[in-house]
Design a protein that fits this description.
With about 375 residues, this protein is of the alpha+beta class. It folds into two domains: about 1-80, no CATH class; about 100-360, Cathepsin B, Chain A, CATH 3.90.70.10. Helix content is about 30%, strand content about 15%. It is built from nine helices and 14 strands. The protein has helices at about 1-20, 25, 35-50, 55-80, 95-100, 150-170, 175-180, 195-205, 245-255; strands at about 85, 115, 130, 210, 230-235, 235-240, 260-265, 270-275, 290-300, 300-305, 305, 320-325, 340-345, 355-360. Strands 1, 3, 7, 8, 9, 12 and 13 form a seven-stranded mixed beta sheet that branches. It has a three-stranded mixed beta sheet with strand order 2-6-14, sandwiched between helices. A hairpin with a 2-residue loop joins strand 10 (about 300-305) and strand 11. Helix 6 crosses helix 8 (about 195-205). The longest helix has 24 residues, at about 55-80. The radius of gyration is 22 Å and the shape is globular. The termini are far apart.
Length: about 375
């Protein structure tokens, strides 16, 4: 508790300096002495997130990156009053390193060729003002941590099946992400993949084993597929892609359950809490590189003239903001206990590009194997 409080106080001093136009003093132009406050905050960052560096040159480089990221977070804070940005587990990484470690890029990029499903039958019902599947017992599994394995796509797919299975059959299941990595013939394991790769694997393996039987190893070394060794605990019939329309996505979410989406994760590097209200400039919707699970939506409350999550450092009034609730795969200590919120209604960070969801069902007669999309 004392460490966290001290960290916050020192960070507040740094931010105050930034707000007065002292950003340049935070950037280490050489390996000489740094401002006392920055060094103290960086030391606390290293303790909190268990960081150590191989030599003094690397330490100096990471300090420079850390200072740059604090300035970037402050710029975002001033530009976006609906969310808070600051020190995170990724504050000593460059933007490029962050993308390489936590996205799902890979050398050969493929886009799935699917007809987007029209949910016309759902338009008769009014859209509820809020929806949060976390409130349904057994629907949403605990937050996972992908660590150094670029498997957000597999975690999002497993989370989708877990939620839909729990909603439909009232059975809580936690499914094997490792089976999706070991037995996937379309993706590239911990080097990257796409949500549809995971769904195709489940269909070809006639189901998915439990996390307890086939646990996540959290490393990039390829492992032998053990799909036949363990009993399956959940199955899917097929999977669909929804239309790139936020109203349709919200209706499907409210009537059927959580959906996987793939977004541009750029702003998540510095995110702490609140609603990310991105623009096409700050978060290009055409470039998506991180898959997550969409679990709900709502609208932020307002206290007086200010939005509830606004930072004390921002003095602009903020209006009530519609948002999506998303489940991430970076552990429960990141963001809002592992979750984050994106503005709803502006295709923030490309959320409408690949809205995919499985359709769960009890096992049926084995179908013909499904090929990877070209």
């Amino acid at each position: 508790m004392a460490l966290t409080t001290h960290f916050s106080c020192l960070l507040a001093l740094l931010v105050a300096g930034l707000a007065q136009g002292n950003r340049d003093s935070l950037r280490a132009q050489d390996h000489g002495p740094q401002p006392l406050e920055l060094n103290e905050v960086f030391k606390l960052f290293q303790v909190q997130f268990n960081r150590s560096y191989s030599n003094s040159a690397e330490h100096a480089r990471r300090l420079d990156i850390f200072a740059h990221n604090l300035a970037q977070a402050q710029w975002l804070q001033e530009d976006m009053c609906t969310a808070e940005f600051g020190v995170t587990p990724f504050s000593d990484l460059t933007e490029e390193e962050f993308g390489q470690l936590y996205g799902h890029q890979r050398a050969t990029r493929r886009e799935i060729n699917m007809v987007r499903k029209v949910e016309s039958e759902e338009w008769g019902e009014p859209l509820p003002p809020t929806c949060d599947w976390r409130k349904v017992a057994g629907a949403i599994s605990p937050i996972r941590n992908q660590e150094n394995c670029m498997c957000c796509w597999a975690i999002a797919a497993a989370g989708n099946i877990e939620a839909l299975w729990g909603i439909k059959y009232h059975q809580s299941v936690e499914l094997s992400v490792q089976e999706l990595l070991d037995c996937d013939r379309c993706g590239d394991g911990c080097k990257g993949g796409f949500v549809w790769d995971a769904f195709i694997t489940v269909l070809n393996n006639s189901g998915l084993a439990s996390e307890k039987d086939y646990p996540f190893k959290k490393h990039t070394k390829p492992s032998k597929c053990l799909a036949r060794k363990y009993t399956k605990v959940a199955w899917i019939q097929d999977f669909i892609m929804l239309q790139d329309n936020e109203e349709i996505i919200a209706r499907h979410l409210a009537t059927h359950g959580p959906i996987t989406v793939t977004i541009n994760m750029k702003l998540l590097q510095h995110y702490q809490k609140g609603v990310i209200k991105a623009t096409s400039t700050t978060c290009d919707p055409r470039f998506v590189n991180h898959s997550v699970l969409l679990v709900g939506f709502g609208k932020s409350k307002v206290k007086g003239m200010r939005e509830e999550t606004v930072s004390p450092r921002s003095h602009r009034p903020c209006r009530s903001t519609p948002y999506w609730i998303l489940k991430n795969s970076w552990g429960p200590k990141w963001g809002e206990e592992g979750y984050f919120r994106l503005h709803r209604g502006s295709n923030a960070c490309g959320i409408t590009k690949y809205p995919l969801t499985a359709r769960v069902d009890q096992p049926v007669k084995k179908k013909q194997p499904i090929s990877c999309p070209p």
